[in-house]
Predict the structure.
Amino acid sequence: MDEVREIIKKGDNFLLTTHIHHDGDSVASELALALTLKKLGKRFHIFNNDPVPYRYKNFPYIELATTQPPPFDYEFIFVLDCASLSRTGKIREKINFENKTVINIDHHMSNERFGDINIVQPVSSTSEIIYDIIKDLVEIDRDIATYIYMGISTDTGGFRYPNTTSHSLEIASLMVKLGADPGKIGELVWFTNPERRIKLLGKVLTTLDVRDGVAFIHVTRRMMEELGANEDDTEEFVDFPLSIEGIKVAVFLKERDGGVIKASLRSKKGVNVEKVAREFGGGGHKNASGFEVNGYDMEKLKEVLMEKICLS
């Protein structure tokens, strides 16, 4: 971490990016680092594959997260919360990684260590790592504290998931002391759902298919199109089947364009779904992983996943 701190102190031009279909932790880690760079008078730009999901659009300085290429040359590229460069989407083709210092900061153990500098730690969130990097660089104000808290709280499922640790709780507590408002953050993230999301959830839950401790749900493009919904609206749907008593693994299958199916896997009772996701070229954490495949229909993929989950 000291090497990264020195780069932040001495560097002038920074580019920040994250994975496609970004979530609370990726948004939060980008903004916390960007606001740190702003305090230090550095030039920076956030360039992402996708727009910010609706639930984060009312957070301070969120307009800094753009889908526009950087208007200046940059020396250093921070890739945050992203296990591989391919997961940055179009960013990989649209920015120059050659002759730049790539700093890879992530908490996914499936990370491919693609950076010139790799800080990959099995903690609650990338936001937790960002805090440990910036805490001695600037005075953390309310806005930075808000993002650190938001990143940790979303990636721990509101401090419900097994990745919640005493260290992550200590940081969250400190962020509240520094001005983060848990009630307001919670309302913005979890209690500002558009009507279409709730209607879509109703449709998705009718697809529930329980097989020997594994619960499957799915969403099709047609279901989303009928409601004017998008993939952002499905965030955390996989938690609902996981909440069923006796369920060890929940699988949420999402139909995408071109015959692609995105699978999100969650587990409890010690089942390692990262091992399953890795067999399909994906990855993540022991209790939360995912992958994308082509050439399967929903039923066939369920059958294959049942076999692999039973062996894990």
The chain has twelve helices and twelve strands.
